[in-house]
Amino acid sequence: MAASHMLFCVWVLLLFMNNAAGETRHYKFNVEYHNVTRLCHTRTVLTVNRKFPGPRLVAREGDRVIVKVVNHIANNVTIHWHGVRQLTTGWSDGPSYITQCPIQTNQSYIYNFTITGQRGTLWWHAHISWLRVSIYGPIIILPKRNESYPFAKPDKEVTIMLGEWFNSDPEAIISQALQTGAGPNVSDAFTINGYPGPLYNCSSKDTYKLKVKPGKTYLLRLINAALNDELFFSIANHTVTVVEGDAVYTKPFVTDKLVITPGQTTNVLLKTKPEFPNATFLMAARPYFTGQGTFDNSTTVGILEYEHPSHHNHKSSKNLTIIQPVLPPINATGFVANFTGKFRSLGNAKYPANVPKTVDKKFFFTVGLGTNPCLKNTTCQGPNNSSKFAAAVNNVSFQLPTIAILQAHYFGQNGVYTTDFPTQPLIPFNYTGTAPNNTNVMNGTRAVVLPFNTSVELVMQDTSILGAESHPLHLHGYNFFIVGQGFGNYDPNKDPLKFNLVDPMERNTAGVPAGGWVAIRFFADNPGAWFMHCHLDVHTSWGLRMTWIVLDGPGPNQKLQPPPSDLPQC
For residue 320, which phi and psi values (nearest 5 degrees)? Predict the structure, then answer.
């Protein structure tokens, strides 16, 4: 009896340990060409496993994920696991020339990381040039076994990825723009799960359809994978309850319209109508834009179709009334500020908001556009046809090095980057007032170095140079707390008095308001080299990016792991 009891105890312990440790999940991502036709244009698109959008990556909190990425295309490629903390596994983060050299043609690399303390919706995408326009897919992190959501279990879960479609090759578009200094051509359509929908020419058959039953609850995992556009989203005649942002649970709130920046995810609960409604409802997404340049001013539409209880003796869906949603105006900055202000962390014992209450280091970064002069004896097509478009953080436009910053940091290689990134603007000015006459940026590969576990406060201030614009900033390797935001110039004396240090939202991507500022806090508890950049890829290409280098801590689990043996070489 005693022996069998002991065996049972050992079995329970092993089961518990197995649950706590999680499983190992293996994926193979073949990056390959695939012909895709949209809007009557057939184009050879870069994809993973010939899927557009790409395959789902599903894991549980605590699981180890091993993805072998094989490059079968002519372009260099890397994959970023957007929002995954990558604790001590910075070599698997993915941004080219920051944490790794890219995977070259016919080469492979194994990304190996554990999902620690995260659950919800994230996503993966290529992280070199503009390749993420078609190389992207969802990451679905389920709670640990025997754990539940902090809301009623939905009847079904559905992923909705918003994207952008170009009729011509996006790599040619950005390459030409960087050469001429002009703004790049904009996309030809937005997409819902890869489909533009019926409002575009030659596209009615390419429409995403979500079939639902009356009286059910659906968890919609919304992801903005668009290249250069923040997007409004709405479903006609339906409200949704927001329950999560960037894989962090929120205090639930109800809305009929959302805004999602590129890089962000939002989970919402959709409760369908109790009876068959005799109507078809459209879901739609279109851009939020405040800048001065051109943009894709179009709308992608999908269909929310109710399943009829009897399946017969009813009007065909073609005869049903079609109801369209009402989206905010293109430049509805007030709506955006109001909506983002509703996000609050749960901030309870199980899901605490561990926001730094005191701060070791304060940083003030301007983010915005600028210019570079034309090369001697050449004309260019940027502002006033006498300069090239650029973008910068604290007026430093970041130049990618030719070997990865993390490698240079780990192996002590000099000359790859400098550690003199300015902690505040070198020349203060009226950031949201009349722009200065000289809009030229400095160019360089500069980083900020942080000791392990430094508590950081960073205020990011938009500027009016070449137009005030919203900038969704993404920080790799971290979540951060959004403790404050506002319009105009940040006031270091008055604005901190209004900071939320109780239940601020925790995210990996946050919009710096057009003509305003956002304040974030985080503990630098993850050693490595961590990219921070605008998630509008045109701004990233122009240089709105920088790198934080976080030093090792004293403990064994506070040090960057050694590089893997198959780390690509430049």
Answer: -70, 150
Q: Given the DSSP bridges, would you call strands 258-260 and 230-235 parallel, antiparallel or unpaired?
A: antiparallel
Among residues 570, 555, 482, 501, the alpha carbon closest in space to that of 525 is found at 555
For the record, the structure tokens of 471 come out as: 């900038």
Dist CA 228 CA 350 (whole Å): 36
Task: Evaluate whether 478 touches 455 at the Cβ level (below 8 Å).
Answer: no
- Which regions in the chain score pLDDT beneath 50? 1, 6-7, 9-10, 12-18
For 96-145, write each residue's pLDDT tens digit: 999 999 999 999 999 999 999 999 999 999 999 999 999 999 999 999 99
Strand partners, 138: 123
pLDDT tens digits for range 157-196:
999 999 999 999 999 999 999 999 999 999 999 999 999 9
CB-count exposure of residue 43 (10 Å: 0-12, 13-18, 19+): middle
Task: Give first-to-last CA distance, the chain, whole Å.
Answer: 63
- Would you tell me how many other CB atoms lie within 10 Å of the CB of residue 38? 22
Q: Which amino acid would we find at residue 78?
A: T
| Main-chain dihedrals φ then ψ at residue 12, nearest 5 degrees | -65, -40
Is residue 41 packed enough to be buried (19+ CB in 10 Å), middle (13-18) or exposed (0-12)?
middle
Count how many Cα atoms sit within 13 Å of the Cα of residue 315 in the half-sphere of its side chain.
12
Pairing status of strand 361-373 against strand 321-323: unpaired
CB-count burial class (<10 Å; 0-12, 13-18, 19+) for 336: buried
